[in-house]
Model the fold of this input.
Amino acid sequence: MPFIFTVELVALLIAIFTYLMIAFRSITKVPPWASMFFGGVLMIVTGVISVNQAYSSINLDVIIFLITIFTFSSALELSGFLRYLAYKLIITYRHPKKVLFFILLYSGLLSNLVTNDGIASSWTPVILEASKAMKIDELPFLYTLAFGVTIGSVMMPTGNPQNLLILLEAHVSYLAFIGVLAIPTFVNLVLSYFILLLLFKDKVKDAVIDEIRPVEIKDRKLAYLSLSLLIMTVVLFLILSTIRIDIVLGSLITSSLLLLVARERRNIIQRIDWSTILFFIGLFIFTEGLFRGGVIDLLYHFIPPPTNVLTIMVSSVALSQVLSNVPLVAIYIPEIMQLGVGTTINWLALAAGSTIAGNFTILGAASNVIISEASEIRGGKSFNFFEFIKYSLPILLVNFVVLYVFISLVGTTLIQLLTAFH
Done:
């Protein structure tokens, strides 16, 4: 009897092949974005999904949003502002351990203004410059940036794309996000700092940085223009989300104004991290193949259904490693609604679980891929799949416990108080 390749088997084989390519990139020398994009293409050419299904699977809101945010990152780097920011970070704090703490804190808080992906893109050059000036291995600071944007972006809808989906599709208010998730986020940032010191105690030297060459902003006009429009973007995010209009409209307006006014528009476009855009396109197509090929249904046999805070957080952390967190949330929102458990507290559990999932494997969040690729492009080190897990697992476990305890014990009470106040 001949062996029959069913659609389900083909989808599973493509998934295994793609993840092996990413896990062993140190051997294959193929970056994750290329592996994921190829995996998505394989889903099409093998007939797992049709071309039309592939096109419809791509979330243009996410793709356009990333392009607009990367436009600002590119302009700020081109103007020399990011290098100046690295200089100010070092000259202000001087001790590498203090620099590490404030990278963790600032990246976590700022991610809520322009998403974790935006900060991941714009701060990677800062980290490389700072590490070079301190003459210290950049990896501890790159990991700190990766963990910082993941932990910090939990507490606001504008912190990451998956929180945006929950805001727009599940109609969870800004106030609910901040009211319930702000305290555990700050607790996790502080605890994670001490874990990082233990993990990298042999790599982060306790020295004072004395001699640093002064750095000035190369193009002040471009820097001020970019910063002004970026601030306007954040304001538009808040206004549009309040009146329930897609916030992508805000970043579209401001980024298009930047390209219209700035003379360096061609250089800005050329410096955009297009490899990450390809990663996301490939990821959406790849995920659609997993879904239609039955691989997701197969995984459901091993993961509890999302019916309460614990099962939602556990399953979203686990499935985000296969689907990445944005597609996972896109799939989970209608499923949670269908199960009839779409309470505010469960939506916040989904936001928390799917976000901290980035602190498990490099595929858990696109921001990890962005940092790794942005560093490698500029001559720095990239993340190793298995090394990432070694450093991230202690962080993830602490993050999970803090968020779960806080959401499950006091979340409902806080929601009731916020509702009454509102």
Notes: The mean pLDDT is 88. The longest helix spans residues 96-134.
